Amino acid sequence: MFEQYMVCEDGFRNVVKDGDVVGFEVRLRVPYYRGIALSLINSIDLVVDGVFYSHDDMVFSVETGSFPYNELSTVINNRWEFGEKATLFVKKQDGLAEGLHKVNAVVNLRISYLPWPNIGEDTKQIVLENDKVLV
């Protein structure tokens, strides 16, 4: 139902650390009508321009903290609230080229009262912002 709003068109940019581009980030909204604990995220799959990015290279950030993707299942005290734009950082040497990119995200959530996972998918054509985030 909220999948069409999942991939955000703002905040799609490269990340610079110590003068080098170390990756990129994309913002996502939860594809569910309520906020959820981060431990209830089964998976977040990201494909940009046909390239699938490994979970090992991701860091997921919400307003209350940043967590390596592989630790999300243990994060019970932090939530991804409805409407909040979470940031998914992807480690990628030299980041992405400037211009238009096809971004596809699939978010699989575990909902306590549903016997099946809640899976949201969204694809958008987004222009990589010129401003870079310095970390």
From TrEMBL:
It holds the Pfam family CGDB. Residues 2-113 form the C-glycoside deglycosidase beta subunit domain. Keywords: Carbohydrate metabolism, Lyase. InterPro entries: CGDB. Belongs to the C-glycoside deglycosidase beta subunit family. This is C-deglycosylation enzyme beta subunit. It comes from Neobacillus driksii.
